[in-house]
Amino acid sequence: MTDRRNVSRAVLEDRAKFIRTETVRLSRIAGAGHYSSTFSCAEILATLYYRQMKIEPGRPNWEARDRFIMSKGHAAIGLYPVLADLGFFDPSDLDTYTRFGSNFGDHPDMKKVRGLDFSSGSLGHGLSVGLGMALAARVQKQEYRVYVMLGDGELSEGQIWEAAMSAGHHGTQNLVALVDRNGLCIDGHTEDINSIEPIHKRFAAFGWDVQRIDGHDLDALTAAFDALPDGRNGRPQAIICDTVKGRGVKRMEMSLDWHVGNLVGEDYDEVMAELEAGLKPYVPEPAE
Amino acid sequence: MSTEMQNEAEIFRGTTSGETRFKDHRSVRGTPRAGMPAFVLGEELAELAQTDPRIVVATADLASANRTNDFRDAHPERFFDFGIAEKNMITAAAGMAACGLVPYVATFASFAAILGAEQIKTDCAYPRQKVRIVGTHSGMSMGFYGSSHHSLEDIGMMRAIADLTVCCATDANHLRALLRISVDHPGAMYIRLGRGRDPQVYDAVPELAFGKARRLREGADLTIIATGSTVRASLDAAETLAAEGRSVRVVDMWSIAPLDRDEIAAAASETGAILTVEEGNITGGLGTAVAEVLVDLPRVPFLRHGVPDRFVEVGPPAALYANYRLDAPGLTAVAREFLG
């Protein structure tokens, strides 16, 4: 069922960089943006859209396409540029980002943006949407996969676990949950606010096959996607991606200050230069 | 077990016949007790699905209570019981709709519309997905199960959501008509049903169009605008009042959103007064919807009747209807007092 394009690691690295720089550029238009939540899932998004998903930008409603749901909808700012880059719409459309009447708001609207498979914004819904789409494939005898990007803070929502239990019960193997495990929610570390570990064991207990990888490691992401089994029926698939919130910009990495922020002036130029130079090894701040 | 308890137990057996108490839980198709047409929900959907492969049905552990088991038996591959997880059910239905299916999801109204309100708003109405949320056992029809199981607020809550069609089924024949025109209607829809015992109003399956009320009786002194379970009682009250020399028009305002403004305007200009009747909280419901139309028209005597913005007592439904004067004798008295 797969139609993976032969995309090099260098291309994926470059597209992840593109997702980050576009996020910084668009945030300046809006005067605020979800930088750090988008930076944490840049490699996941790049691998998914440029290598993994079976899509045809010329046919956004193609019935047999793979679906993607950005359940952590506040990272839409990283998804819009990808859709534009792939040809779903004109990249210059993004210059209206968040302006009055724009098709592009902080959270994605499927009615307004070509290439979006569903809207989101209210956390906790996306896995249910994906489950419904995975079950629809069964009814319609289609072979597509449904990928759902979940935030780790979002896992506190009860509906996620309703969907996880239901997917385990229905055996929707074509449903793939991608957890962006970046460690932070708005008020602090997830484990301090409402602990969600061990995430992999929790999904496994609900009947899912689970992989846990470094979500910034493109080789690991590629391997995890390649390991997904074909076919609709079996165990639903979860890939827990351990990531760093704000990854790629030193001042934002694991910082609580950049869930929403605005870079202007010299700060903007510095961050753009930092991103253009490419990812440096992540070195956690020493514990106080 | 008392007779009343037996009747209450029937809610979960999905049948109105005490004789089937220890038999198969599935419905007794086409054999409702006289005057109490049981749900035809699953049966009608199963028939529609014979020729329409898009139709799928889901419930949340209430397949026998809401008769979606009739659909399950006919089309098991297109039936999904999501268990007691209503939010997941409603949102999953939105996902299915986004792939071209037309899902009907049914559970008690209190859990469909009130527990699931945000899922209906965010996942169904806003992205204009063709999900049909069917809330059964609405109003106070669950009697002594109490306020958690009563849905007095669902009309008001659902009509406050943009891009959501909201309608109430009047009886079995009306529900059949409603389901038939619902399949191809654009966008999301909330369909409010009674408990399945709603007495007959329509002798045959009526012709319906969304936004078009049904005028069931002509009159000049008063128009009763009713919906759902209160339509039969309104007709019976009108009959009693006619014998007393009062000429009462009765309108079945089954389509709450879109609302038939012309029918309301006609009532305001052609009859002497307007009385709205609903099995629910008058705050935000049908009465409020009608008031929103009347406020733009020349003044006409107007009364909203229903539950006066409070939670109701527990008790057998018939006792509750009597207490809130939503049965025929009660409505007759309300109308008499109103007309003076």
UniProtKB/TrEMBL annotation, chain A:
Cite a single Pfam family from the UniProt record: Transketolase_N
Cofactor(s) required, per the database record: thiamine diphosphate
Claim: Cell inner membrane is one of the keywords in the record: no
Which ranges carry the Transketolase N-terminal domain? 17-272
- Write the record's keywords in alphabetical order, separated by commas: Thiamine pyrophosphate
Which CDD domains would you find in this protein's record?
Answer: TPP_TK (cd02012)
Q: Which family does it belong to?
A: Belongs to the transketolase family.
Q: How is this protein named in the record? A: Transketolase
Automatic annotation (TrEMBL), chain B:
- What InterPro entries is this protein classified in? PDH/Transketolase, THDP-binding, Transketo_C/PFOR_II, Transketolase-like_Pyr-bd, Transketolase_C
Q: Which CDD domains does its entry note?
A: TPP_PYR_DXS_TK_like (cd07033)
Q: Which Pfam families match?
A: Transket_pyr, Transketolase_C
Q: Where is the Transketolase-like pyrimidine-binding domain?
A: 35-200
Q: Which PANTHER family match?
A: PYRUVATE DEHYDROGENASE E1 COMPONENT (PTHR43825), TRANSKETOLASE-LIKE PYRIMIDINE-BINDING DOMAIN-CONTAINING PROTEIN (PTHR43825:SF1)
Return the protein name: Transketolase family protein
What organism is the protein native to?
Seohaeicola nanhaiensis
What does UniProt list as this organism's lineage? Bacteria, Pseudomonadati, Pseudomonadota, Alphaproteobacteria, Rhodobacterales
